[in-house]
Write a structure and sequence with these properties.
Elements lengths: L36 H14 L4 H14 L10 H17 L5
Helix pairs in contact: 1-2, 2-3
Length: 100
Amino acid sequence: MTTNGADDGESADGDAAGSEPTDPTGVDPETQFEPDPERVATLRAIGDDVRGETSESKQLANVLYRTSDLYDPDEETTPEEIVRNVKFILEVNERGGLGR
């Protein structure tokens, strides 16, 4: 073990020594998401079900809709773009809206 408590073959964050840093989304950037209309419909149906009057339920529904775009053949997006979009949505909500 090293002084940081990790085994000699691992860094402090648990990655193997010398390995490439992982994407913060946890998704391999080379991963391709094949079109899947059934998955799109399922994610959007769940989004419709959870959407309510609260801002939290609206946010969750928006996240599900954005995630469904990965599998929609008419949409071009990446997990990274979705994460950025979701972070933006959350930041805007924290500030109380776009106009503030």
